[in-house]
Design goal:
Layout (H helix, E strand, L loop, with lengths): L2 E2 L1 H7 L10 E4 L9 H12 L7 E6 L5 E2 L4 E2 L6 H4 L8 E6 L1 H12 L1 E2 L3 E5 L15 E4 L8 E3 H6 L4 H8 L1 H4 L4 H17 L6 E7 L9 H11 L8 H10 L5 H13 L8 H11 L14 H28 L14 H10 L3 H4 L2 H12 L6 H15 L4 H10 L8 H7 L5 H11 L13 E4 L3 H5 L2 E4 L4 E4 L3 H5 L4 E4 L14 H6 L3 H6 L14 H18 L8
Parallel strand pairs: 2-6, 3-11, 5-7
Antiparallel strand pairs: 1-11, 2-4, 3-6, 8-9, 8-10, 12-15, 13-14
Helix pairs in contact: 1-4, 2-4, 6-8, 12-13, 13-14, 14-17, 16-20, 17-18
C-alpha cells in the first residue's frame, strides 16, 4: 500500500497544482467533528510512532460537487457553501475515508482554530507509569509568550537543525535551561521534524476511476464510502441519509444546514437533519419509520429534492403558528418534535386548515403534555397521517379515538399533574400554555412570560425546623417542595422583578391584586394562607384549585 509523509500529504490539500489537481472533500462527506483534544491526541500518536489507520482516496473526472478543507475554524462553525468549488468536471482526488485525520493535520500545520495555532510543549515527553498523553499539544495565540510551547508549523517547516531552531524560537529561555531540559527540547524538535516528514506514516488506497478498467461510478463510490466509514468516527444515521440524498441532490447538506440555522432561531429550537428527513419521507407517503434503505430508492431521493421547498414552507408555517399562538417558544417546552409531523402533513396537503382550527390548543399541546408521542411514536404518526388523508383534514374526534386505540390519551392523572410538573420542567411550560393560553396574550408583553415561584426560593430556604435526633436546625423545605407546581405561576416579565413582586412579601403583593388575577392564577383567597408560616396549607389548597382548573380544561382522567 502506498504511503506519504504528513508534511507532503498536507501540501496537496486544497492545491490545484498538486498531483491530480490536489486533495479535496466530496459533498457526501460530513462536516469536521473532531475537537482540539482529539487533534492533540492524534499528534501525540505521531510523536509516539503509533500506527495510523489507512485512508481511502478517489481519483475521478466525474461531474460531482466537492469542497475545500477548512483552513480557519472559528467557533466550531463552518459555512460549507463558501468552501465548495466550481469546477465539477475537472480531474480531482477526493478523500473518502480519513477526513477527520487529514483535516486535523491541515489545521495543525497550515491553519488555526479561533485564531490559535497548534503548539508543542518541547519539554514534555517524559515517560511516566500510566500515561494517556506523553507529548503535549495545544492551540495557542502565536504572538503571546508561550514558552515552553513552540508553534508546530515553524518546527516542521523551518528547515533548521533542532539546536539552531531552539535558539531561534526561544532566544531568551535557552540560556536558562539546564542540560536535561535542553536535551529534552532538542530531542522533541528532532522527533517532530522526523515523524511529520516520515514517508511511511500515512498509508492510503486510491480508487482510480479515470482508468478504463475501473468503471466505478458515483453511486458505487457512495456505497464504498458508507462501508469505509463504518469504523473510526462512525457515520450516524443522518450522515448516511444525507450521503445517499446527495447522489440525487448535490446541495442537500448546504440547503438543510441553512434551513436549520433559520428555523432553530439562534438555538431556541433543536430541529435536526434527522427530523427533516423523517418529516420529508412521511409527507411524501413513505411512512414515519426512519430507515436508511428508503433513500437507496432513486424515486424517494428525487421526490424529496423536488418537493423540499414546499416541505420547508409547511414546516416553517407550523412552527410560526405554534410560536405565535402558544407559549411554546423554545425547545424547553417542545418536548416531542414528532408531534409536529401530523400538523405539517395537514398544512402540506390541506393548506389553510390549521390556521382556522383549534387544533393547537385542543390536540397539540395536550398531546405533548400527556406524552402521546413517547415510546413508539411512528405508529401513532402513521395512524394520524392516515386519518388526515382519509378525512381530508383533521377530525379531532376521530384523532382522539385513534390515539385512545393505541392506549394513549390527551389527559393525565392527578398524580402526574402535581408531581411531574415543576419549576424547570418542560411539562410545566405545556401546562401553563393550556392554563393561561386563552387569557394571556403574548402580544401584550414587553418580554416573554416567566415561570416564577410564588413564595421565593430564598424565603423558603430560610425556614428552619429542629431535627430532634441531632438537636440542630435543618432546612424545612427541600428542593422539590420549593419547586413543585403548586408554588409556580406564570408572570409577565414587568411584574416579576424589582418595583413589583420582587420587592414585596407574598402577602403584601397578593393583597394588591384583583380578584380576577387571583382566579386566573388559582390563588387561594384566604389571606392567612399568604404568609410563609402557612406555606404547607397554601400548597394543599392551591393543589385543589389547580386540579379543579385542569378538570375544566379536560386534562385529567376520571380515574386515578
Amino acid at each position: 500500500m502506498p504511503s506519504k509523509s504528513i508534511r507532503s500529504m498536507i501540501k496537496e490539500i486544497n492545491n490545484p497544482d498538486a498531483d491530480g489537481n490536489g486533495l479535496w472533500l466530496p459533498n457526501i462527506q460530513r462536516q469536521f467533528v473532531w475537537n482540539q483534544d482529539q487533534i492533540a491526541r492524534l499528534c501525540d500518536s505521531v510523536m509516539r510512532r503509533y500506527p495510523l489507520s489507512s485512508m481511502l482516496l478517489w481519483r475521478t473526472n466525474e461531474q460531482i460537487k466537492y469542497r475545500s478543507f477548512i483552513q480557519n475554524l472559528n467557533d466550531g462553525k463552518v459555512d460549507l457553501k463558501s468552501h465548495y468549488q466550481h469546477n465539477p468536471n475537472k480531474l480531482k482526488r477526493l478523500v473518502l475515508d480519513g477526513q477527520q485525520r487529514l483535516q486535523s493535520f491541515y489545521l495543525a500545520l497550515q491553519g488555526c482554530i479561533d485564531g490559535k495555532v497548534l503548539h508543542l510543549n518541547v519539554l514534555s515527553g517524559e515517560q511516566t507509569g500510566s500515561e494517556e498523553i506523553r507529548y503535549q499539544f495545544e492551540f495557542k495565540i502565536s504572538s503571546e509568550h508561550n514558552w515552553p510551547w513552540l508553534p508546530l508549523a515553524k518546527i516542521i517547516y523551518s528547515g533548521s537543525l533542532p539546536e539552531d531552531l531552539l535558539s531561534d524560537l526561544a532566544k531568551d529561555e535557552v540560556s536558562e535551561l539546564n542540560d536535561t531540559q535542553r536535551r529534552q527540547a532538542i530531542r522533541n524538535l528532532s522527533l517532530a521534524q522526523r515523524e511529520f516528514s516520515n514517508d511511511s506514516v500515512l498509508l492510503y488506497h486510491e480508487i482510480d476511476s479515470t482508468q478504463d478498467d475501473n468503471p466505478l461510478k458515483f453511486e458505487d463510490v457512495v456505497e464504498v464510502f458508507i462501508r469505509a466509514n463504518s469504523g473510526g468516527t462512525k457515520l450516524n444515521k443522518s450522515d448516511l441519509m444525507i450521503t445517499l440524498l446527495s447522489t440525487e441532490w448535490e446541495d442537500a447538506d448546504i440547503v438543510f444546514e441553512e434551513f436549520l440555522d433559520k428555523i432553530n432561531d439562534n438555538e431556541r429550537f433543536q430541529f435536526s437533519r434527522d427530523f427533516l428527513i423523517k418529516l420529508s419521507t412521511t409527507l411524501l407517503g413513505y411512512n414515519a419509520k426512519y430507515d436508511v434503505d428508503k433513500l437507496r430508492d432513486d424515486k424517494v431521493r428525487k421526490e424529496i429534492s423536488e418537493n423540499w421547498p414546499d416541505i420547508a414552507e409547511a414546516l416553517l408555517f407550523v412552527k410560526d403558528e405554534i410560536v405565535s399562538k402558544t407559549y411554546i417558544r423554545s425547545h424547553k417546552a417542545l418536548t416531542s418534535y414528532n408531534a409536529l409531523i401530523p400538523l405539517v402533513y395537514l398544512q402540506y396537503h390541506f393548506p389553510g386548515q390549521l390556521a382556522k382550527s383549534k387544533i393547537l390548543h385542543e390536540y397539540f399541546v395536550p398531546a405533548l403534555f400527556a406524552g402521546v408521542f413517547s415510546g413508539q411514536a411512528d405508529s401513532i404518526i402513521d395512524k394520524m397521517v392516515k386519518s388526515i388523508r382519509e378525512n381530508e383534514g383533521f377530525n379531532l374526534k376521530k384523532v382522539k379515538s385513534m390515539i385512545e386505540s393505541s392506549n394513549k390519551y390527551l389527559y393525565v392523572s392527578e398524580n402526574h399533574l402535581l408531581y411531574s410538573c415543576g419549576y424547570g420542567s418542560g411539562n410545566i411550560h405545556l401546562l401553563f400554555n393550556m392554563w393561561y393560553g386563552r387569557d394571556y396574550k403574548s402580544s401584550g408583553f414587553q418580554h416573554e412570560p416567566q415561570i416564577d415561584h410564588i413564595f421565593a426560593r430564598s424565603i423558603l430556604k430560610e425556614q428552619k425546623i429542629l431535627n430532634e435526633a441531632t438537636g440542630r436546625e435543618v432546612q424545612r423545605f427541600g428542593a422539590w417542595e420549593i419547586n413543585q407546581l403548586a408554588n409556580c405561576m406564570l408572570l409577565p416579565a414587568h411584574q416579576n422583578g424589582a418595583g413589583d413582586k420582587g420587592d414585596k412579601s407574598v402577602d403584601r403583593w397578593l393583597a394588591e391584586q384583583s380578584e380576577e388575577f387571583l382566579d386566573l392564577h388559582c390563588i387561594p383567597k384566604m389571606k392567612t394562607l399568604w404568609k410563609v408560616e402557612n406555606y404547607e396549607r397554601f400548597i394543599d389548597k392551591r393543589q385543589q384549585l389547580i386540579i379543579q382548573r385542569c378538570e375544566e380544561l379536560g386534562l385529567l382522567s376520571s380515574e386515578e
